[in-house]
Amino acid sequence: MATPIQENLVAKNKAYASSFTGGGLALPPAKKYAVVTCMDARIHAAEAYGIYLGDAHIIRNAGASARDALRSLVISEQLLGTEEILLIKHTGCGMLTFKNEDAEALVKKNLGEDAVKALVAFKGDFLTFPELDEAVKDDVEFLKQSKLIPEKIKSKISGWVYEVETGKVRSVV
């Protein structure tokens, strides 16, 4: 039995597919760049950042974490030819509102001690941050210092903040 969310997926996809014309796009992104941004549901990344279908890779995770996105960035660059990275965090991010200890306590309360032990999968680090602009700078620096990012790309890494209140982006670094 399908849930209402699943039924919506099927119905909306049917409408989308009926006029879909992008099936012939090439696998590598046409404009050769990748965007790391947050999974926050208030961000419509393609529209907010002016990305058309086939232009760029959009890598989304909690907090727009460069560390969490590194595997995808390596694939994007090494296998699919991207040459630039835009890291875009946002105002009002949930990752500003808690610490690792808070998340671990919730996991323990809701899922039990065995689940807390399973946090070893990512060393129990939820990659939270206390200050937005500093987090952008730290993640850009992390990418620039990584041996997994080619030198030719390091000069093309930029950090931004998307303002969920206004829909505007501003450059940080």
TrEMBL record:
The lineage of its organism: Eukaryota, Fungi, Dikarya, Ascomycota, Pezizomycotina. It is an enzyme of class 4 (lyase). SMART domains: Pro_CA (SM00947). PANTHER family: CARBON DISULFIDE HYDROLASE, CARBONIC ANHYDRASE. Coiled coil: none annotated. It holds the Pfam family Pro_CA. Belongs to the beta-class carbonic anhydrase family. Binds 1 zinc ion per subunit. It catalyses: hydrogencarbonate + H(+) = CO2 + H2O. Keywords: Lyase, Metal-binding, Zinc. GO terms for molecular function: carbonate dehydratase activity; zinc ion binding. It comes from the Eukaryota. Reversible hydration of carbon dioxide. Zn(2+) binds at C38, D40, H90, C93. Its EC number is 4.2.1.1. Gene3D superfamilies: Carbonic anhydrase. SUPFAM superfamilies: beta-carbonic anhydrase, cab (SSF53056). It comes from Hyphodiscus hymeniophilus. Its cofactor is Zn(2+). This is Carbonic anhydrase. The keyword Lyase applies.
